[in-house]
Design brief:
This protein is about 85% helix and about 0% strand. It has about 475 residues and is mostly helical. Helix 1 crosses helix 7, helix 2 runs antiparallel to helix 3 and helix 6 packs parallel to helix 12.
Length: about 475
């Protein structure tokens, strides 16, 4: 439980700082300028996120020759990521011209720095040192936001967006390296054959994250190429807003649960118990957050961004509902990593990615800004059945028992949405703060009633104290 609190300390601090900067950048630049800067940054983030997952999950799953594994991964991926960064720099320079060289340089250097950081992060997750994880992220993000806001104040807002991410990841690496000087001991060695094996083991995880990554960074790039920077800016802001619950709550629980799953993976009954507790606790916060975003998207945009960004509200609502669906499968990737079965969802993840990106290419003229959403919701037709089967196999349980854990949360969120909708439609409440308060209060009341009636299992919820 203490580890989970440290994880949330990290996520809350990082998210709040990031939001402050994003709101300022978006208001200063507008959809077009914001979109152009984010397109450049998204290219590097898209690649680095894939590399991070290719790299990290084999390290977490490693049980033999751990020292050699970590050193091999660090050296091998540093060389590969540096080569990729050089190639990407030249490509982006040709596309955007020499006037953007500094922004492009800072964005591509992010890739190798992120790569070497991932080795330290994997080690901290395995050792469940969540306090150190929290401090490296908060120090990095604080320094990044400070640098970004200062440069934006000087008038270089596009540069500020890139500089913020660069400084954040660089400072976080320095903090981890100084606090863990013994990670790469002198007896460990680099092995090319081991590096190839690690790459092979990481490929399924790399492809799995493409499914999520293509709906954020990759999507921004495609929208910029086929529709224009205006729509890219709308989606960049919408994704940022919708990512708040996922980053603050989802990733926090995932980081914490990965260590807990690793600890009990050999005990099937205990693993199911930990999973149920983690799922119920996570969904009890994550699901109402997404449903709440659906309900207050338009007043939220009006309050913080104004009329220029109003079209982003519909995108936020659809993306929030989409992410709400995926919140029920939040723990599938870490379970697959532990049992080395990430390859089982490889095909559906790749197919989903292709559908989303092709929807932008093929349907932009017909559906405009809604084209990506058509692809996303179409891909659910085969993703959800496959994910359901795999999570049941990983836990050696049945799907009905999983539904029983979370159905009370679903009902609570539906009631909350109904109350907020009535407040807007029948009572003309438009103040976003009042609507959020109405939603939170109504959800808490229903949650308590369902908990007393044991519709939300009290025993499962109480287990969080023992973890």
């Amino acid at each position: 439980m203490k580890g989970l609190l440290w994880v949330f300390f990290e996520k809350i601090g990082v998210t709040v700082l990031s939001l402050i900067a994003t709101f300022w950048y978006a208001n200063l630049l507008g959809p077009v300028g914001f979109g152009l800067a984010i397109i450049i940054l998204s290219t590097s983030l898209f690649i680095s996120t894939i590399i991070e997952n290719l790299q990290q999950y084999p390290l977490i799953a490693a049980t033999e020759n751990v020292d050699d594994t970590f050193k091999t991964s660090a050296i091998g991926w540093l060389l590969v990521s540096t080569l990729i960064a050089i190639i990407l720099f030249m490509v982006l320079l040709v596309i955007y011209g020499s006037d953007w060289w500094l922004l492009i340089l800072l964005s591509v250097v992010y890739i190798p720095i992120s790569s070497i950081s991932r080795v330290y992060i994997a080690d901290l997750i395995i050792k469940q040192k969540y306090k150190q994880l929290a401090f490296r992220a908060c120090w990095g993000k604080a320094a990044g936001v400070a640098a970004g806001l200062f440069v934006a104040y000087l008038g270089y807002v596009e540069l500020a967006i890139i500089l913020q991410s660069f400084v954040a990841v660089f400072i976080a690496l320095i903090v981890m390296a100084l606090s863990n000087k013994s990670l790469f001991n002198s007896n460990s060695r680099f092995s090319l054959s081991l590096f190839i094996t690690l790459c092979h083991e990481g490929i399924p995880s790399g492809f799995a994250v493409i499914e999520q990554n293509a709906k954020s960074h990759g999507l921004i790039i495609f929208l910029g190429a086929f529709i224009g920077p205006y729509v890219s800016g709308l989606y960049a802001l919408a994704i940022k807003v919708v990512d708040i619950p996922r980053t603050l709550i989802g990733l926090g629980f995932t980081t914490w649960a990965t260590g807990k799953f690793h600890q009990v993976r050999a005990q099937q009954t205990r693993l199911v118990s930990v999973f149920n507790t983690a799922l119920l606790c996570c969904c009890s916060i994550l699901v109402p957050s997404y449903i709440g975003l659906v309900a207050v998207a338009e007043p939220l945009i009006n309050e913080f961004f104004g009329d220029d960004w109003l079209e982003a509200s519909e995108i936020i609502a659809w993306l929030a509902f989409y992410q709400c669906i995926f919140s029920f499968y939040l723990y599938l990737p870490p379970l697959q990593v532990l049992f080395k079965t990430t390859y089982r969802t490889l095909l559906v993840n790749v197919l989903s990615t292709v559908i989303v990106l092709l929807s932008v290419v093929l349907f932009s003229d017909s559906f405009g800004k809604y084209a990506p959403l058509v692809g996303m919701y179409t891909s659910l037709l085969f993703i959800l059945p496959k994910y359901s089967v795999e999570i049941v196999k990983a836990l050696n349980t049945n799907f009905v028992s999983i539904i029983k854990v979370i159905y009370g949360i679903l009902l609570s969120a539906v009631v909350m949405y109904g109350v907020v909708y009535i407040s807007i439609d029948s009572f003309a409440v438009s103040n976003v703060y009042m609507l959020i308060a109405i939603g939170v209060i109504s959800y808490i009341i229903v949650f308590i009633l369902f908990n007393l009636a044991n519709i939300i299992d009290r025993k499962i919820l109480a287990n969080i104290k023992t973890l």
